[in-house]
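User: Can you predict the 3D structure for this chain?
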Amino acid sequence: MMSNISDERLIVAAVKDGDSEALEELKKRAVSGEHGIRAVLKRKQWQFSDEEINCVEEKILERISDNLPSYNFSVSFQSWVFRNTINQAIQHQYENAKETLDNKCQEEIDQSKVQPITKDLPIMPIDFEIRPLVGLLNQSPAIKTFTSCSGHPDQQVWEGKRGWVQHGGWIGISPTGDPSRALDFLVSLLSRLDNTHSINTTETISNLYKQADAETLFCSSGPIAIVKVSLRFFVSHHEVEKCIQIWKQFIACLKELIPDYDELTTEVNTPVMVAQCIQKALHLTPFVYYAKLETSSDGKPCIVLKTIADLPLLKWFLVLSQLLHEHFDIQQNTPFTTKWSFELRPFLNQELIPLPHLLTPQWEPRTREDHLKIWKLLELAVTEQLESEGITVKTDNN
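Assistant: Here is the predicted structure, written as structure tokens:
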């Protein structure tokens, strides 16, 4: 009986012998079980209808059939199916979000033909709404700000259109030394605003929202603030073997965090091949929207990564920065460079975010009033963070 045959033997029979019964048994096993395709797609996090579940399940089974010859037995068949299921579910969410965004963009275009945007908007003093916040951030020894935009209504259109553009502004931040210290500061900052109502949510966090008269934001879905993360990594060394060794150490760091990605391999023999391997793996991760292979000024391969991070993903980058510093001895002038930069942003409209992991069911776009309260919440959170580090906070009145 087929039910008594192992997954591995069924795969061999299906691929090498073309056994259709073996293939059907594998599909049956992929769908059923606690971690099978159907059980995963029914999880609340996806909010899929029955019709969507059937559609996504069909695509996953087709993908399994097509990719079965490339299955390399490095992970169990069920783990391989689970990864394919998660990737396809995320892709389905992304396609739905993109379609919704395209429709809204078309609505804005059509409406702009009737109600053209006024071009002669007055020029406002930049950052007048966030000047206190910028001043507080610059009191941290771990970071410094280098650009900002408050998102004031006169800098962008806030009203008068359906689906109004809610970018909300940003504060550009760069590390002053060890990037791990900057990331640790940002992780602590977002943790103080954590409104996920997990077991880690404390009364202290709730009280912070009360101070800003923002209880509705505390009860809302979606993060309060997000961070755009940019990372540039390249190696400069005259010895090719040394370059390859450093690139492979970078792969080792990534594999500790993305263990299931088969694209991350150390079986490469040139710096360009290693960089291409990393770029391909990062490009396939659902939480990265930009992963590009570039060339540095001295002609060496360079990886550029960009993404939008909520609190869990920002913690991932903190671990990555710590691993990099464990693998590379900065004090001995290791010939590699990582350049990190960040943008602290209010989270106002998830439909403008290009990443599926930030899409939240039953989302209500936030208002201009919410926008101002988020800036205030960030001020309070930064003040708390500085005081927890023993820093005497200076205000404009000091």
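The beta strands are 143-149, 170-175, 225-235, 290-295, 301-309, 336-346. The CA atoms of residues 94 and 309 lie 16 Å apart.
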